[in-house]
From TrEMBL:
Organism the protein comes from: Aspergillus ibericus CBS 121593
SUPFAM superfamilies the record matches: Clavaminate synthase-like
Official protein name in the record: Oxidoreductase
InterPro entries per UniProt: DIOX_N (IPR026992), IPNS-like_FE2OG_OXY (IPR044861), IPNS-like_sf (IPR027443), Iron_ascorbate_oxido_reductase (IPR050231), Oxoglu/Fe-dep_dioxygenase_dom (IPR005123)
Sorted UniProt keywords: Iron, Metal-binding, Oxidoreductase
High-level lineage: Eukaryota, Fungi, Dikarya, Ascomycota, Pezizomycotina
Pfam families: 2OG-FeII_Oxy, DIOX_N
Family per similarity comment: Belongs to the iron/ascorbate-dependent oxidoreductase family.
An example Gene Ontology biological process: small molecule biosynthetic process
Keyword Oxidoreductase: yes
Residues of the signal peptide: none
PROSITE patterns found in the cross-reference section: FE2OG_OXY (PS51471)
PANTHER family found in the cross-reference section: 2-OXOGLUTARATE (2OG) AND FE(II)-DEPENDENT OXYGENASE SUPERFAMILY PROTEIN-RELATED
Sequence ranges assigned to domain Fe2OG dioxygenase in this UniProt record: 174-275
Amino acid sequence: MATAPPVIDFGPYYGDDVAKKAALVQQVRQACERHGFFQIINHQIPSDLPEAILQQAREIFSLPLEVKEKYSREIDPVNLGYERLRAQTFGEEPSDLKEGFFLCRDFPPGHPLIGRFSLGLNKYPTEMPDVAGFQSTVNRYHTVMADLALDIFRVLAQTLDLEEHWFDSFCHDSVNIMRLLRYPPQPAGGRERGIGAHTDFGGLTILLQDDQGGLQVWDRESSQWADADPVPGALVVNLGNMMMRWTNDRYVSNLHRVINTSGQERYSVPFFVSGNPDYLVECIPSCKAATEAAKYPPITVEEWLEARLADTYGGVGVGELSKEVASATH
């Protein structure tokens, strides 16, 4: 029977109880090794913010298609803005049944990071019912999630027997991209996927999902899909391929997909944390013996992301694990 990713109380990170903090570190370590996924509660995100950003997603996708296309991510090279339905394909055809809107941190004109990987000036559709409200909510969400990501990385450092602030320089001026996503309802069965089986390619992802369900994570021990059902107040955290590479494959970047059979529209907001573009990712010292060779050569964040983006939109598969999934589900 498939085992779903655990729900972990993140509250001890903000407290003073040493034993509870140690238990949190151990729970996260086990989740990273076993699933590459976990959900966190008591993360101190303002209680009004999740619904506020989901409402903005509902409003932006309610705009007419010809309006949304004015803000297409294909108009300029930094990949920000609207992504039409079925623009992306993971695995087999048909293409993914979702539409999205990409947003980065809000930069002032002339900022030195503008023009780096997927970083630039955001598009704020003037046709929104409250464009100022959309902009302020998006930017507030981006700031809060970046802070939470730093907290999560500080726990991850401890799971790897590193000093708590070991990842701080990686998180400084990080390439953080959020996507507002809408999944139309789809019939049960058949080959339709809201998003096909894939792994994320950055450092980690923090996902807000609404209450419709549909997210599934591959359980490698049972060779089955496990439902990551929505938990009130929880956020889903998963590791990306960069983290798996960084830990010399000690931690898992796991396959996941979305099948929206709720009969309702599904909305979610993934926040992708990929690190400072100039940061050099090389095997973490605690993830190999002193005499052991690293499995992967060093690479900068930006070099890694550019190559993975080309793979993703070129329809390239996700390796041996995807073959395992295909053989188990056909």
